[in-house]
Design a protein that fits this description.
alpha/beta, 47% helix, 7 strands, seven-stranded parallel sheet
Length: 248
């Protein structure tokens, strides 16, 4: 049987890497989407590291905030591998500051990269999924899209926007064997968190009821479940994976 194809945007980052590895272990042909400002060497080095660890993961270049670049990325995947069966919209950035200091560029950079990209990538794969009558779309949001966060009006707005997008598209394609869901990680021990000064990091940890930061693998396992054939009755949902830090 031909392997199903899974595309993970932001696939070479901390959470993205864990998702790629998990989906590889689940039997998918995994493709890690990357941009890195056009730094192909960095992506090549990541791919070689994955190979050294026993993971055969393809890479695909694309600027997820640019429609033409997304289109070229998906066309290349379709040509080299086939149509995408699983899409994980994981790529994103932060440009943090208080609203009174936030520039229009800081707003647009985050909205376009974190939210408009979800429309672009989903729009480009949805017709192939509809034709196959099977597909899995998972959008990686954030605890700060659920509760908001000081200094992140742009990021919180983009991540909250994913929920509306998820629920609307889920209704459009539910009868066609396609599910669309959101995962909202809390604080995960990626480099971004671990680079925070120890005393600040410890104060954050104390606010998490389970007493620890999440691991990238914690998020990857949720994605694994939602992309499985057995999760076909779950759509339009948001799964909070935050150690109990925000319950609702």
């Amino acid at each position: 049987m031909t392997k199903r194809i899974a595309l993970v945007t932001g696939g070479t980052g901390g959470i993205g890497t864990a998702i790629c590895k998990q989906l590889h272990d689940d039997g998918y042909q995994v493709i890690a989407g990357y941009y890195h400002g056009g730094n192909h060497d960095k992506a090549d080095a990541w791919q070689q590291q994955m190979k050294a660890e026993g993971y055969e993961i393809a890479i695909a270049f694309g600027n997820i905030r640019d429609w033409a670049s997304c289109e070229a990325c998906i066309d290349g995947i379709r040509k080299d591998f086939g149509t995408v069966d699983v899409l994980v919209n994981n790529g994103g950035i932060t440009r943090d500051t208080t609203l009174r200091k936030m520039t229009p560029d800081m707003w647009h950079d985050v909205i376009e990269t974190n939210l408009t990209s979800v429309f672009y990538m989903t729009r480009l794969v949805i017709n192939d999924m509809l034709e196959k009558k099977w597909g899995r779309i998972v959008n990686i949001s954030s605890i700060n899209g659920e509760k908001g966060q000081f200094g992140q009006a742009n990021y919180s707005a983009a991540k909250a926007g994913m929920y509306g997008f998820t629920k609307a598209v889920a209704q459009e394609v539910a009868s066609k064997g396609i599910t669309v869901n959101t995962v909202s990680p809390g604080y995960v021990a990626t480099s971004m968190i671990m680079d925070v000064p120890d005393e600040i990091r410890e104060e954050i940890r104390k606010t998490i009821p389970v007493g620890r930061f999440g691991e990238p693998e914690d998020i990857a396992r949720v994605v694994s479940f939602l992309t499985n054939d057995n999760a076909g009755f779950i759509t339009g949902a948001n799964i909070s994976a935050n150690g109990g830090q925000y319950m609702h």
